[in-house]
Specification:
two-stranded parallel ribbon, 55% strand
């Protein structure tokens, strides 16, 4: 069939008008996957986080022993019913046991709470295992040193306090069972030497955290001893008769080394600094306040799971 000249002209014009559109579409075609590329990256990040939270050996747990040293501190005692409102200044305190031989004896006899024990349980928050969130318990102990005469200011029996009090005869104060630091920590790990995440891996570990102080008070002040009730009846944490009571807050930093000795088993040696504000520590017919600065050395063994 013969196509009229007018029709040929019309078809030619339409084809010429569509040609620029087809060129534009052809040039724009490679840009179409750009949107899915963004989604792929987001999916990759999500997958990385999910992997970090679900991988095996992404949790760790450790149990350790420690020794503490305390800066001299002031202890303020308030006993309104007795007319006592005084402060002892520059009190020297120590942990327990007080000697290396006591420490070695507790280890050979497998006394797991003497000296002081330390627990860490954490979870890595990235696939590289360089950052973790951790719960820690430092079951430290504090006892004022005996055979010291501590300066006193304030009132005792509604009269000016004497210049000094003798320990332990007139003032015996301890947080022996114990001075518990419960903290939530941010933890960083940096590879130093050896094969990464394998036996022989040596890492720098550092922590910063904060939490609560949960002490058990044992004290006898001017002949009056505190009574907080039986341990098995009232264990914790907010009543005046509880064995352990929330009596303040703590914050600290810790740094040291972690060494993988076998598969998922490691040793860790760290040094810690902590600042604590004790408020409302039970004493006979009253309470005591104290600010503590503690340094601590912790030797732990742990495993990944």
């Amino acid at each position: 069939m013969k196509i009229p000249a007018a029709t040929k002209h019309l078809l030619c014009t339409a084809a010429m008008s569509l040609l620029p559109c087809s060129v534009v579409l052809a040039q724009g075609a490679p840009e179409v996957p750009a949107t899915p590329a963004v989604n792929t990256q987001a999916a990759g990040s999500k997958s990385s986080m999910e992997r970090a939270l679900s991988e095996e050996n992404n949790w760790y747990f450790s149990w350790g022993y420690s020794r503490q040293q305390y800066q001299d501190s002031d202890i303020h005692v308030s006993q309104p019913g007795l007319g006592n409102d005084f402060t002892v200044h520059g009190v020297k305190g120590s942990d327990f046991p007080t000697s290396t031989s006591d420490t070695l004896k507790s280890l050979t006899e497998l006394d797991l709470t003497n000296p002081q024990e330390n627990i860490r349980i954490g979870k890595f928050m990235n696939p590289e295992k360089t950052f973790a969130i951790e719960f820690s318990l430092d079951h430290s102990k504090y006892n004022i040193d005996h055979n010291q005469n501590v300066p006193v200011t304030g009132t005792i029996a509604n009269a000016p306090a004497p210049a000094t009090l003798a320990t332990p005869g007139q003032f015996d104060y301890a947080l022996h069972n114990g001075l518990n630091h419960l903290m939530v920590n941010a933890v960083w790990f940096k590879h130093l030497a050896g094969p990464e995440q394998k036996p022989g891996d040596l890492q720098l570990v550092s922590r910063v955290g904060a939490g609560i102080l949960l002490p058990h008070a044992e004290n006898t002040i001017l002949g009056n001893s505190v009574q907080v009730g039986p341990k098995n009846d009232n264990i914790c944490c907010f009543n005046k008769g509880d064995w352990w009571q929330v009596n303040g807050w703590t914050a600290g930093a810790e740094v040291g080394l972690r060494y993988t000795i076998y598969k998922t088993i490691y040793l860790e040696l760290t040094s810690k600094w902590a600042y604590g504000q004790l408020r409302g520590v039970p004493v006979y017919q009253g309470s005591a306040d104290q600010t503590l600065i503690m340094t601590e050395q912790v030797l732990s063994t742990g495993f990944l799971f």
